[in-house]
């Protein structure tokens, strides 16, 4: 990331910040994750890269959800979803829909959550994204056991 900054590579810097935020989120350092992802969003917005802005926004939404601020995360997922649809980015659209499903499942609305998971699964199937199809299929099996 520092090399990207020194070279003036704003795209590379924002990309690195997004991935760094994902790592920090997965290790539980949510404040650092949110900070890195906020910086990435600002850069993508400044350089006019809406596709990666939408992608980064979805990751930021996941971090905010992990902090427990589910209403804010839902709003962010919805914003990212609108952007991905506008940009015709079906795989990112499915991931946003999955985030919205997670919100509904976590807030006690399983019917709505499952419906969103079905929508995401349909997109993954249409795109032939085997790993995501298998992951969601396993999620459905887990939900059925509950």
Under CATH at level 1, the class of the largest domain stands as Mainly Alpha
CATH topology of the largest domain: Serine Threonine Protein Phosphatase 5, Tetratricopeptide repeat
Q: Fraction of residues in helices?
A: over 70%
Morphology: globular
Write down the Rg: 16 Å
Largest sheet geometry: none
Task: Summarize the structure in words.
The protein is mostly helical and 146 residues long. It has two domains: 69 residues, Serine Threonine Protein Phosphatase 5, Tetratricopeptide repeat, CATH 1.25.40; 58 residues, no CATH class. Helix content is 87%, strand content 0%. Helix 2 runs antiparallel to helix 3 and helix 4 runs parallel beside helix 6. The chain starts with a helix and ends with a helix. 37% of the residues are buried.
Keywords:
mainly alpha, 8 helices, Serine Threonine Protein Phosphatase 5, Tetratricopeptide repeat, 146 residues
What's the short version?
The chain has helices at residues 2-7, 10-26, 30-47, 50-67, 70-86, 90-106, 110-127, 130-145.
Describe how the helices and strands are arranged.
Blueprint: H1 2-7, H2 10-26, H3 30-47, H4 50-67, H5 70-86, H6 90-106, H7 110-127, H8 130-145
Helix pairs in contact: 2-3, 2-4, 3-4, 4-5, 4-6, 5-6, 6-7, 7-8
């Amino acid at each position: 990331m520092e090399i990207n900054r020194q070279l003036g590579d704003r795209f590379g810097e924002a990309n690195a910040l997004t991935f760094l935020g994902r790592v920090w989120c997965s290790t539980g350092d949510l404040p650092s994750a949110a900070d890195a992802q906020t910086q990435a969003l600002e850069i993508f917005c400044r350089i006019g890269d809406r596709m990666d802005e939408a992608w980064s926004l979805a990751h930021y939404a996941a971090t905010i959800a992990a902090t427990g601020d589910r209403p804010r995360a839902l709003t962010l997922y919805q914003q990212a979803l609108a952007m991905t649809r506008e940009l015709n980015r079906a795989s990112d659209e499915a991931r946003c829909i999955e985030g919205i499903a997670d919100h509904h499942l976590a807030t006690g609305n399983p019917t709505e959550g499952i419906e969103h998971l079905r929508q995401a699964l349909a997109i993954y199937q249409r795109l032939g994204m085997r790993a995501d199809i298998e992951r969601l299929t396993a999620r459905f099996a887990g939900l059925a056991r509950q």
